[in-house]
Amino acid sequence: MEQAQANAGSNGTLTVCQGTTPTDAELFAALGGTPDAGGSWSNVGLTYTYTVAGAGTCSSETATSTVTVIISSTLTVNPQLTNNDTPVIIGTADSEDTITVTVNGVMYSEGDGNLADNGNDTWTLTVPSGYELLDGTYDVMLSNGICSDTSVDELVIDTTAPVLTITIDDITADNIINSVEAGSNIPVTGTVAGDFKAGDIVTLTINGNNYTGSVDSSGNFNISVPGVELVLDIDTTVEANVSSTDGEGNRGSAQDTQKYFLQDTDRDGIPDVIDVDDDNDGIPDIEEGDGLVDTDGDTIPDSLDLDSDNDGINDVIEGGNGNLDTNGDGYIDVQDSGYSDTNGDGQADASVDEEEEPDTDGDTIPDYRDLDSDNDGINDVIEGGNEEFDTNGDGVINAEDTGGSDSDGDGISDSVDGDTTRFGEGNGGDEGAIDSDGDTIPDYQDLDSDNDGVNDVVEGGNPDTDGDGQVDNPHDDSDNDGIADSVDGFDGFGDADNPDYDSNPTDPNDGGNGVVDGDDSDGDGIPDPVDGLEGFGDAISDDTCVKVNNLMSPNGDAANNYLHIDCIENFQRNTIEIFNRWGNTVFRMEGYSNNNPNKRFEGISNGRANINVNDKLPVGTYFYILDLGNGSKVKKGWIYINR
């Protein structure tokens, strides 16, 4: 307590609470007298003066006696909000005072083991066990016997934990992870609601690993997770947990789970992400682009598309595995006779062979992506017997054709799909490729579909000036759809014009001279007795179509970058040798091909004689010897390199 300044001869003491002015009666009592009726002190002939340090003078008169006024120190209780039902309460009071603290009707005194004077004008009360406080607001009353604290409702007990909910969204748009998604990071999103706060942490558990992210002010979270981890999670379930702590220290949490699925296009029980052949067409996914190539632009990648070029002939046939699809449903699985997948990789054992991806016409476009697989100018959609379904005549059957939608998303247009409700054509849905002359070569690969001795290219009314059985410049295909530019009416995948039928290429007596019998050694559909070429195609003479373009300018632009030899692909056994003016060999190649950068001359030495490998040959004249490998006379000539 603070003691007031006192005059000499003080003979009275009075204790008052801070901020309180003593009354006359209190002062007189301190001097041991009694006031008169008017409250004056003059009746006993006494006068007094009292002074309070720091508080100012309350009254001043002629001093004959002095009252020493002692001002009580301020009593305080620190307010607190807590979840502890036996809280520790602290405050201030003069350590010389003897205090009591009352909480919820229970009075605690110094020395009772609960209320302690800390010796530095502070005190501490620990509410003991057995006197637990329920949630609510409490007035803590502090007293030193004369004064009490003036604050109220200093203590709030709140033990209620935050109530949260958490919801995980579908893991992907369709809640199915495909092969492409599996190779990237996938955002796992969701929402937290209830008593959350921004910054609360959400933890996802996937494949035994934890991934964390924070909640924004709207309760949303977005956590990036490697797709491969989702694939490797055995139970294909994401577990999510979130917790939040309120101002009182109460902690609440919530959990949720989200089941997802791995895409299994062919329903063989092997997810696409580890399936070597996702659509079971017998063509490995790696050859079909692993989900990144969509030849016919129907939004279904070739590796999931049973008819990758929409010509109406299923890939299982054009990929060379039609004999394995014994029930004709468009893919190879346990329902087919003789099916086996010994190593469980998702590809039928019998489809793993060297005959995968036939490229009948040798234009580097496999038949299953080629709209004219034999380059006879008659689109496969027609030679496959599906002309009526290509209602707009563009060489493909798709959503632009009447009835050409794909309801089940298997890549087979509805108009030629034996089952439009699910993957595949259903048992017996595909009758197989048409073979008009019964020579085991289907019409779309047969240059003389009726064996009448007149090639289809002629009977179809298409130009074949070199007489090789294929349209002119068959390997010039700007849009890479398999239809040669010379008969392609559309710059893009497809053909804007139907082939012009001058006669029927499948009628042996229409445009021809009847059936020609005989073997077909090169398998191009033209019987040997009337086949002028050993290899795919037919030539009137060896010199008809072979032409070496003499000028080349390998300078990086798109024109004349390599030595182009017309129709050299028809002579697979060819050999070419190129010399400089001194007779040194600068280039030699067996099986020269315009379409293969590794098999053609681009003005760079391949290291013969004294010429270094990969040397860019200087501008000048060079000489060649070309042997077609068919017994005909070798061709000689010159070429000029200009850079």
What report would you give on this structure?
The chain is mainly beta and 643 residues long. It has five domains: 2-72, no CATH class; 76-157, Immunoglobulin-like (Sandwich); 164-262, Immunoglobulin-like (Sandwich); 334-540, no CATH class; 547-641, Immunoglobulin-like (Sandwich). It contains seven helices and 33 strands. The strands form ten sheets. Strands 1, 2, 3, 4 and 5 form a five-stranded mixed sheet that branches. The chain has a five-stranded mixed sheet with strand order 26-33-32-28-29, with no helix packed on it. A hairpin with a 5-residue loop joins strand 22 and strand 23 (251-259). Mean pLDDT is 85; it is low at 1-10 and 35-64.
Number of strands: 33
Average pLDDT number: 85
Silhouette:
elongated
Count of the separate structural domains: 5
Largest sheet: number of strands, sense, barrel closure:
5 strands, mixed
Distance between the termini: 108 Å
Structural class: mainly beta
Low-confidence stretches: 1-10, 35-64
